[in-house]
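Kindly review this record before class:
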Amino acid sequence: MIVLKSEKEIESIRESCLIVSQTLKRIGRTIRPGMTTGDLNTMAENFILSRGGRPAFKGFHGFPCSICVSIDEEVVHGIPGERRLEEGQLVSVDVGVEKAGYYGDGAVTFCVGSVSRQKRDLVSVTVKALCEGIAEAREGNRLSDVSWAIQHYVESHGCSVVRDLVGHGIGKKMHEEPQVPNFGRPGCGPLLKKGMVLAIEPMVNAGGSEVEIRDDNWTVVTKDRSPSAHFEHTVAVTAAGPRVLTEFSVEAPC
């Protein structure tokens, strides 16, 4: 069942999203070669707690850390640890926060130092695909209008969307109905209504769309080991149009 949120509930979700945004901004200002993925996790966890939030990913279905950190061919759900960041890598950071019973979710792919043209283009395509999807999150549209906008933009630029993973509704739970695929025919699926809150998150590969899971049972990687990028905003459907609740910029992370 899709739960419609009141304006008061949307404001509560926005409070959690604000911590998500601030966390990602802090990571963006400090990420550099030589840091470990564990360093990023510690920094994020301490900051989230200092803001009165709870790292929503920690313990979620058994996930061991507070954020997901995925490098290059890793699409999502990378487990932070001792791995050191290197010049030229793409690093996707996914952050979830719960505060006062409401959840926020967001992700950014950062460039570590100078990256290849292919990686810069991939990041740009993913950012713009997210913006295309958000623009369709309007009352009266169908859910697949969001999905199609993302898929059409990505594929028209020679990349592919991951089909095994999707965005989701969000509110009093991290994952609520409906699922939000990044592909599909326009004009299908649930009618978008005022009060829906969606985590829209294109996961885009430079190569093929197929993925597989590493032996840690968490980290999703591209099957062809091509680089991948991931951006996510939490978005409310309102009478005035889509309202982005995660307020970080997705402009020029490289």
